[in-house]
Design brief:
The protein has helices at about 40-45, 45-50, 60-65, 70-85, 95, 105-115, 120-125, 200-215, 235-245, 260, 265, 270-285, 305-315, 335-350, 370-380, 450-460; strands spanning about 150-155, 155-160, 165, 220-225, 250-255, 290-295, 320-325, 350-355, 390-395, 400-405, 410, 415-420, 440-445. It is about 30% helix and about 15% strand. The strands form two sheets. Strands 1-2-3-4-5-6-7-8-9-10 form a ten-stranded mixed beta sheet. It has a three-stranded antiparallel beta sheet with strand order 11-12-13, with no helix packed on it. This is Lysine 2,3-aminomutase.
Length: about 450
Amino acid sequence: MTALHDTTPGLRPDLQPYTYRRRELVEPDWRRFPGWREVTEAQWRDAQWQRAHCVKNAKQLRALVGDLLTERFYDDLAADQQQLATMSMLVPPQMLNTMAPDAPLTPEAFTEAFLADPVRRYMIPVRSDRDPRWPSHPHSARDSLHEAEMWVVEGLTHRYPTKVLAELVPTCPQYCGHCTRMDLVGNSTPQVAKHKLALKPADRQDRMIDYLKRTPGVRDVVVSGGDVANVPWPQLESFLMRLLDIPTVRDVRLATKALAGMPQHWLQPKVVEGLERVARTAARRGVNLAIHTHVNHAQSVTPLVAEAARTALEAGVRDVRNQGVLMRGVNATPDDLLDLCFALQGEAGVLPYYFYMCDMIPNAEHWRVAVWEAQQLQHAIMGYLPGYATPRIVCDVPYVGKRWVHQLNEYDRELGISYWTKNYRTGIELDDPEALERRYPYYDPISTLPESGQKWWSDQS
Ligand code: SF4
């Protein structure tokens, strides 16, 4: 019974579905891993050391963790890499160190904790993580958002009337198992031969700048990849300065997961000084320069990540925002989402901006949630954070674009098909009179459907 004279102050946090408690950020001790026992603080903060010590295969993982992971784990990992992985392994020490931070250091217990770890689940996927019956949705596709179809110049996607996405490099300092650009980004895997960009980077950038000069209706440029942390700084700075020279460009957003995956990159003096020059120019010209990062779990928000975000803000970047990806087993609960948002907003100066539903790429069904689950999550996280810092959960509907998850037009829950509409044409629909009338489908994971719906899909296949 709720006593009116209860001594718990405030609105009885113990009676709320989510209890906020301020938590201090911690950098887990990397010396708990045998391979990093001797690694000094100076080495850890060094971006070159981080790049040189990324874990790229099972052999390097073994050398790092010694006997902490059992053979069961390595067998599971090898099976995944051979049969299902769409991304090759590339995990910076900073990210690996946030996995199973408090696990007991005995093989069985550590393996259990590592397998259950939310960051491990998307950075080092194993076979047993995947959906055994429907690893891929029948409508899944490489380049599920059809970005390459909308290239106006190689790597420049013009999908929204006023905005473009400029992919400068097809690489990142870290590779995420669920990468939506799995078609292009990273090294080929046994399952996926990656497409290659044909133009030389300098030529591609010249053509992008040329298109933007000729297209004054585009005011917003997302400079991405891959990850801009993999563009050599002088090259990136020169591209950004040329963008800022175009008077019609009013927003520039730099996409970099490395801010959280390898914050050491964004703390290098040459990068900070360069960012200051770019931010000063942007401010002088009245352009909104922001960094968009990609953090999926509160464990990843460490003091170094907060330091990198605050350093970017001090350098004059107007805002650092997070675009996480909503994934089952990683963060698809109200508590996980709110813990992450409070760590970002309250402790690191990063605005929780979006959570994307995981896109319909091959072998991603175990991560994806149904639209109705995303709607419930959106409802559950309302009211705790400041309104401007309450993230929107969005569905990137193929051929439509980002939509808030409640904006669907119609929803067949039995077959797991939601229908969406759009209010602008992409370049490939300019001659299509039906484009704005059509309903565009999006599909829930089949394993989330009622039995009758699952049977329907089985019958189809
Ligand atoms: S950082 Fe972004 S582009 Fe790079 S692998 Fe991860 S999701 Fe893909």
